[in-house]
Amino acid sequence: MKLSENWLREWVNPNLTTADLVEQITMAGLEVDAVEPVAGEFSGVVVGEILEAEQHPDADKLRVCKVAGNGDEICQVVCGAPNARPGIKIPFATVGAVLPPGEDGKPFKIKKAKLRGVESFGMLCAQVELQLGEDSDGIWELAEDAPVGADLREYLNLNDQCIEVDLTPNRSDCLSVKGIARDVAVLNRLELKEPKIAPVAPTIDDVLKVTLNAGEACSRYVGRVIRGVDVSQGSPLWMQEKLRRAGVRSIDAVVDVTNYVLLELGQPMHAFDLNTLQGGVQARMADDGEKLTLLDGQEVELKSDTLVIADDEKAVAMAGIMGGEATSVTSATQDIFLESAFFFPVAIAGRARNYGLHTDSSHRFERGVDYKLQAVAIERATQLLLDIVGGQAGPVIEVENEHAPKDREVSLRRSRILSGLGFSMDDEEVVDILTRLGLEMSVKADSGWRFKVPSYRFDIAIEEDLLEELARIYGYNRLPTTSLNADLSIPMQYEARIGLSAVRSQLVARGYQEAITYSFVEPKLLKHFDPDAEPVELQNPISADMAVMRTTLWPGLVSSLQHNLNRQQDRVRLFEAGQRFIAEGKGIENLKQEPMLAGLIYGPRLEESWTGKSDNVDFYDIKGDLESVLSLLADDASFSFEPAKHPALHPGQSAAVMRNGEQVGLLGAMHPQLQKTLGLTHSVYLFEITQASIAEAKLPSFEPLSKFPEVRRDIAVIVDQTTAVSDLQKVIEKGAGDCLTELKVFDVYVGKGIDPHRKSVALGLTFQHPSRTLTEDEINASMDVVIRSLEESYNASLR
Fold first, then answer.
1. pTM of the model
2. Same domain, 104 and 166
3. What phi and psi values does residue 403 have, to the nearest 5 degrees?
4. Residue 275, domain CATH
5. What phi, psi does 605 have (nearest 5°)?
């Protein structure tokens, strides 16, 4: 929200400097982002009047003007502006004037000059040359009643500051000069000097039928017919300047008035060309696919959740966002229909972003507009329009349905003031602060009060909101500081619990970097990774790319991978610890939030080195990384990997992570089709596992080291290619007995000399007894049992 300090002081004028005023506003919770002068630094510029303008004898694009304004002297000025003509008032920089710095950063001093042989004593200025606007097409034409010879800074009151306030979304009541002035008045115990807004008596009987067909979305609509306006009349300079200092460009008198009322009172308004409306107007939801050409020339295809204002034939405006081009006010407009409505915030929130729009109106309506302000705004706009463009006003049309907001009341207990603010406040001061803020005390009891909330304070709904208001107005800097005093007990630390910090450290040690991605993702991308899921949709998404809650962490990690690849990072190792959101029924109470750990690897196995080029990563790299995490649990034997199928994973390179027979995760290579869809050159390997499955570990216990020698026996067995090595290991561990201390797979061979449907698996078995030396017979007996078990279970044969 930008506004001029002078405009604010018209409403309330505390005895404070600009710096003190800005600090006070900031300390009241309305943070000031910037304070800038409303015009560039210049001097010696006066209001001039062109008396004569003749063609330069030696230049087609120059004119020689006779200009009044420098005392009694008539000055000759050579000017290249196409609109230089007799009778207009313009900014006249006299000889010796200093203009704002140009591109070189140095002030520009006006000197006597000679242009194509003709002397020039000064300069006629455009807005851009005085840093008073962006218009550079010609000299700036001032109002006809501008006093010739007056200092331009004093005439336009340019010794002013532009204050930019960064408001939090809950303080929509301060999106206007009146709203900020209201807080300043309360802070300084001053009266608010509001402009007199008297009802305008109708002089014609013309009305328009208004129908509300959108339920709660539009519960109040106020309108008025004004006939016989003269749109050719420009807005007064004082209005143009207030708009400019608020960052709004002057367009025409009708649009300027609606923008002025928006900035002054906080009520967005719109003006239709009455003669382009077919029949009456109605507030309704758009038909799916209905088209509307907006004021900016953009044609949009409306969605069924978009609130529109329509006549009897078509939609004519996106309610609370932007009007339509077909019914807009033009230079030919003679009759207008003014609109001032209340739209429920939820009905407007996010709709503008869905169409790639953001307007001053939508910014206010989606945060909340005073639901009792509409009629006042209509009267204010009517008053201004009749003064500027003339015309005759009809009676005010006001329509309201049963969904209109009702007055609210909030209770405040004395005991909560002490516990919430840390000190007791006198009853008189509590009532004084809250009533000055516009609240009305309806009930007073021994335990506290009950206050009626004003219609413009959408943010006050619970007791804590009243506490915040008391602290804000009393002064955050005045609140007493107290030391915390609490009985603290040291919680028990379970050694069997593995913290996320240990998991993070393990992955970082293996070359990973932690990523933090949004919990909401693009629906189409999520569909690629989890096509069977029904994700929870956000009612008010930040953007279309963040419309649903993730059911897996993979989409965010893959988006981060693409981001890195686009920046020439071809070796990527990422992991993320976060939640996934699974809808187990309708309603927020049936939303399961499950903490997960996910990882991703891509590109070369090793960093680039002079020793040679590294191979790309494969399935066993990601499996090894996950196994290193599981090794932290000391009972990693309870985990196993089984072949599995998943829509996002390669059908031959994917596995389910099992713990004691229960699936707790997945890992594997990304499906080739998905890899192609995402435009990834090399294979991507992913894993995801529940955090709960890696949170509890088995406490390690000491076992004495055996002093006796160990014996290793190697075997190579031929089995079907479909036989999993992990199944062979289970059979061997069961048959080898308690003296088997280590089992390793050191070779897998498929090829010449072996049945094409079978494979050779070589395993190393290490035996050791804790209290004696094993005999050859004992080891042979164990090996016989192992070989026999393999033959019986998997038709294995020794190679």
1. 0.67
2. no
3. -90, 5
4. 3.50.40.10
5. -70, -40
